[in-house]
Write a structure and sequence with these properties.
Strands 1-2 form a two-stranded antiparallel sheet. Among the domains are: 181-215 and 223-283, no CATH class; 288-433, no CATH class. Strand 1 and strand 2 (469-470) form a beta hairpin. It has 21 helices and 2 strands. The protein has helices at 3-30, 38-49, 65-81, 91-116, 125-136, 139-143, 151-166, 170-183, 188-214, 228-242, 245-272, 290-307, 310-322, 324-340, 346-350, 355-364, 370-373, 375-387, 394-408, 420-429, 435-458; strands spanning 461-462, 469-470. Helix 7 runs parallel beside helix 9 and helix 8 packs across helix 9. The longest helix is centred in the first third of the chain and has 28 residues, at 3-30. With 474 residues, the protein is mainly alpha-helical.
Length: 474
């Protein structure tokens, strides 16, 4: 980091923390009592604060990473400041932990951008800094910095894990991956992604060697051939690679720390008789393939300022013209997936405090044909998503897509919080956008954040059978 860039980034970090503290103060004044999932998280953290580590709320479905970190931070502060009484491990103090994670996420995002875009060194200082600031204010993630949820800490440890992978510190990465799993069990998918990038690098190297020998210039190793013959070629190569002892040995020599984490996780699943701890009735896995379409649409909306342009839309139309049979096949498969694999969680239909409730009610429940009429939009959003990865290697893209499928499809509940990590990974690996586009992106995120926090604070309501104040949120 150059000296001038360091000053700019430090100033932005300070400003971001100050603004976040002011918002945190307002949110906490308006909502002093635990809200939504906080009614489970906060009492459990307070039990840990009082040394009651053998007590567990069976309604909590995640491992105790958030509570352990909270106690590890708060206890030394309490001892140094000689604090006593109700302020110790209060709702506000526990929520403040996520503001610290917010600062960490901003710094990690900046480091990841610098590492992933090393080739773009000239005249990119402002773009790197603004990209990091913009992504740290990504609306769904930023909102939960003010409540005691697992999202900020979960994102922090996943980003830290991936950063260590990029720097080649695989043992440290594996340990951080374990920490991320303690925040949310499904983070094992992104630990697997870190290992997958190492496998992909070996496969890309072998693919380039093979195509250099064959002098096959029609299938560039950096792109995924969008054709049936191309798919067949990739599958055959993958099977050959994974059944080659020399290739498997080369991969294991590098990726063994992640393999150890994977084995430990499988042992946990066997002993726990499943991934979920506590209440499992609301977290049943299923093949909800339209979740992938919802994610593509979600991604298109939040990345419009940096991903969409006239030339990309024109390329999509040209692709439709050149490969009509392929897109017809994709449309047919999409119709089948939407028809046979759409699942609706009871929370989505019953809990009117969440934004997805209104998306489903006002869009998908308008008419039973709406979900099918949206398929062309899904296909464009998916194509736009894949087109953003043109600069990435073939097998890296496949590894990312495999992890994306694993992270979204098994989820029965449409919950935007589940899209945070895959969206950030997508956005981080896009080519570094121009400064005007980044400014528009930051303004979009700021506007959405302002609107959601304003609605949360001011637009309260009550249920007929309850006197408690209810608020709208992600």
């Amino acid at each position: 980091m150059e000296k001038f860039e360091g000053y700019i980034f430090t100033a932005l970090c300070s400003t971001n923390f100050l603004v976040s503290c002011l918002l945190f103060s307002r949110v906490t004044r308006e909502q002093r009592e635990p809200y939504m999932d906080e009614i489970f998280h906060i009492p459990q953290a307070q039990k840990y604060c009082h040394g009651k580590f053998n007590e567990w709320d069976p309604m909590i479905t995640t491992l105790p990473g958030l509570y352990l970190i909270s106690v590890g931070v708060i206890k030394p502060v309490v001892w140094l400041a000689d604090l006593t009484g109700e302020v110790v491990c209060s709702t506000a103090m526990l929520r403040f932990i996520n503001l610290l994670f917010n600062c960490g996420n901003l710094y990690l995002l900046y480091l990841l951008i610098c590492k992933l875009h090393l080739r773009e060194k000239t005249r990119t200082t402002s773009r790197r800094v603004l990209s990091a600031l913009s992504l740290s204010t990504f609306p769904v993630l930023y909102f939960f910095n003010f409540l005691y949820y697992t999202d900020a800490g979960s994102t922090f440890f996943i980003l830290f894990t991936y950063l260590m992978t990029l720097y080649g510190c695989h043992k440290a990465s594996a340990l951080l991956g374990i920490c991320s799993v303690f925040f949310r069990q499904t983070n094992i998918i992104w630990v697997a992604f870190c290992a997958g990038t190492l496998v992909a690098a070996k496969m890309d190297e072998a693919w380039r060697v093979e195509h250099t020998k064959k002098r096959d210039e029609k299938s560039p190793p950096s792109q995924v051939p969008l054709s049936f013959s191309g798919a067949k070629k990739i599958i055959l190569f993958t099977v050959e690679f994974l059944t080659s002892p020399s290739h498997v040995k080369a991969v294991l020599l590098v990726a063994w720390p992640y393999a150890v984490v994977g084995i430990c996780f499988l042992l946990f699943v066997v002993l726990n008789d499943g991934i979920v701890v506590g209440d499992r009735t609301s977290h049943e896995a299923c093949l909800n393939f339209p979740q992938l379409f919802y994610f593509f649409s979600f991604t298109l909306f939040f990345s419009v300022p940096v991903s969409l342009c006239y030339h990309r839309a024109l390329r999509f139309l040209q692709a439709l013209k050149k490969q009509p049979l392929f897109f017809l096949f994709v449309t047919g498969v999409s119709l089948l997936l939407v028809w046979k694999f759409t699942f609706v969680h009871r929370y989505l239909l019953a809990d009117n405090r969440h934004f997805p409730f209104y998306v489903w009610k006002n869009l998908f429940q308008r008419h039973e044909l709406v979900r099918f009429l949206l398929i062309p939009a899904y296909i464009f959003a998916g194509w736009n998503f894949l087109d953003s990865f043109k600069s990435r290697s073939l097998f890296w893209s496949l590894a990312f897509l495999a992890c994306l499928l694993a992270a979204t499809v098994p989820q029965k509940l449409l919950e935007f919080r589940y899209f945070i990590v895959p969206y950030l990974m997508y956005r981080l690996h896009m080519p570094l956008p121009s400064l005007p586009r980044l400014i528009v992106e930051f303004l979009l995120y700021t506007a959405v954040n302002a609107a959601t926090i304003y609605i949360f604070i001011t637009k309260t309501f009550h249920w007929p059978d309850s006197t408690a104040t209810q608020r709208f949120m992600w």
